[in-house]
Automatic annotation (TrEMBL):
One of its GO terms (molecular function) is monoacylglycerol lipase activity. Belongs to the putative lipase ROG1 family. Residues 185-379 form the DUF676 domain. Transmembrane segments: none annotated. This is K7_Rog1p. The gene is K7_ROG1. Keywords: Lipid degradation, Lipid metabolism.
Amino acid sequence: MSLTPTNEILFHYKSSVKVGELERYVITYHLYDGEEIPPDLNLNSLWLKVRNMNPLSYRAAYLMGPFMLYCDVKTAEYHHSQKIVASVDYPKFEPNVQTQQDFVAELSVHNIRQKHVWIADVMSQILFTTNTNVTYEVTIGTSKESVENPHDLPSHLGAYSPKLTVNRLTTLDLWNLTVQITTPQKKKHLVVLTHGLHSNVSTDLVYIMEQIYKAQKNYPHEQIVVKGYRGNVCQTEKGVKYLGTRLAEYIIQDLYDESIRKISFVGHSLGGLIQAFAIAYIYEVYPWFFKKVNPINFITLASPLLGIVTDNPAYIKVLLSFGVIGKTGQDLGLENDVEVGKPLLYLLSGLPLIEILRRFKRRTVYANAINDGIVPLYTASLLFLDYNDILEQLQKLKENSKKSPLINDASTPVNQDFFNKTFISPLTKMLSILAPQKFPTENGSEIPKVSFFESASSILLPPLPERAYIMDPDSRDPVIIHDKIYNEDDIPQSEFDIEDGFFDKKNILLQAFFAGKKERAKYQNLEETIARRWHEGMAWRKVVVALKPDAHNNIIVRRKFANAYGWPVIDHLIDVHFNGDDDDDNDENDDINSTQVVEPIQSVTEGKKKYRKAENIPQEYGWLNKVETNGVFDEGPTGMISTVGEIVEALAKRGFSAVIDRRNASEDPNDEVLRFEEMNSDLVQ
């Protein structure tokens, strides 16, 4: 007897996500009860649908969104290190579910067992404002037709079958439940994750967070606690100092307690500089902190530690100095501080940061050799590298791999053309001043490097990994092409010697750094000076990777499957930095830590304790906490979207409503979007 359309639906739910929010659905299907297998057992698949419910006209409102979702679903047993035998168990994912579009996936029950469990993630792809959200609905049914064309849905939301259980986890659940359910320890190791420009920690770094928590098994004597500051979302154009100060205060006032004995920092892109400033700020403003807490890991992934000046055309430097991407652009452009007379990145590379960095057990930088259109190799690796060895490894990788990672042969989503017209084209008009120049191609030699525009579009429209890559670990080419510890003695003591193999101007990996007219030489010298300061009195582990596009987002696995090319990088990060070799480090320091006296604390009205700042810090470090006057362009064009987001949102929604009211259901939806763009050209161009 066939089911009616109504009872074919087993689950229906509606929700919404804002910038930096995700929701996870743990789906458990009880195939049968008891020990005996029923003779009439039904092994038909279930079907999952996630629908983006926002009006179609919202597609044009990219600067207030974009109103898109990332969705994936996998079996609970799936792990990227294990080979998938049955193709029906292949994870399904879609990086950009646009408004009025569906993500539909089959949930196979081909194996006979009492219960099947799947995990589905729904993530917001909003980038630019905190004032908007993406509304969606989740439907699970017994047939594909039932979820694609549901009829007579019950008025109440939830599960409609005793065989199906669905647990919904919010962003806060995912970031906090692991700590709550693990065995409490007297000693805690705090790991702070920090995101980059136009990014967020809660969704973009959730993969790293979950992988670090899996390393808890290596630490029987301490508890790992992974946190990230969410208050800098949509504020990332306000400058390294502003962002770093807020991160530092969050660590002290919200995260610290007497059980914290260790601390590690992991920063992506701009986040590497933000966490560096936060460390220096804490060291001077709260000097007791690093007497109580042992610094363990300082890790950056594709971070512009030397700025982004010489790898770009000369006019880029001029525009950055005018604050086209806010105060952050001035910082990355090595613009002098008006009062101090030196660039912030130069100040940051010296004392007091270097003094405390020397106390970290490990200092590691991960850098993309290719396919990163945002952060060049030289600035992510602190400049000093064996470039000839890296180039040799790239050539070997190209010759030995079945499909070279130097070639962008990955598949791309089917929405490419429409997405480029409605999002990338206007965005690149607004941010076109950030496009790095291509590598020169002398003697026909070429190392691929995607442009800024390609990297920007890949945030939401990444080139997707091949099916074999996800199913079979043996099909994956190695990506770690250089892993070496550089001591201060390894750094050349004089200016670059073109005869020295360590720095060969003819090496194509360095041509972008050395290229340019004489007036740009001063910035090359400045970047070299900053790099030398970072190396004073300490060693750095430098890990260079060769990832397929888009390497800048893949290196952190921004989305679990869409950015899967970065899996080996995070595996390496965990294996090297969270392998348990420092599990007992605190034992020998317990007596020292217990005798340190924390600065007096004052109680506030809410009953929360607040740690006092040091009354005085050395004058030469005054730039750390000196109050600055905000400039008109400190937030940059996209930063201003968040500042006036409520006004823009209200105005735009009036336009949306007008479009929806006039819409004729028989018209082509794409024509409706184009008409909306014409009517609101002041908002969307």
